[in-house]
Request: fold
Amino acid sequence: MWASMAIRIRRARLGAAMTQSELARHTGVNRSAVAQWERTDGGTTPSVANLAGIAVATKVAFEWLATGRGTHPAHALEVPTGPVAYAMDEFEAHCLDSLRRLTKQSQRLVCELLEEMTGQR
Reply:
């Protein structure tokens, strides 16, 4: 399991073309609860009942949503456009999740290292 549950929830929601508010309405919670579920740095984990509601609303497999194992829907791996960066596959999701846990200074150092390694500097 590479991607965190927060990332899987966000991917499922975006893949279903839903806003946080729409997912909140479908699961019977406040929008702030969905925002907390999608936070990769100290967010909360939804209850099993809410996780089941997310799976139904976004049409993804409960097992994949809960554990990262099992069948994942193709739309949950698509990369959204715009300034927010999401991973193209589970390995990139793991790397991105790890990067987001670093301090801003450490993130800059990792970025500089990657640029050096790829010859983009």
Notes: The radius of gyration is 15 Å. The longest helix spans residues 104-118. Residues 77-85 have pLDDT under 50 and may be disordered. The CA atoms of residues 15 and 75 lie 5 Å apart.
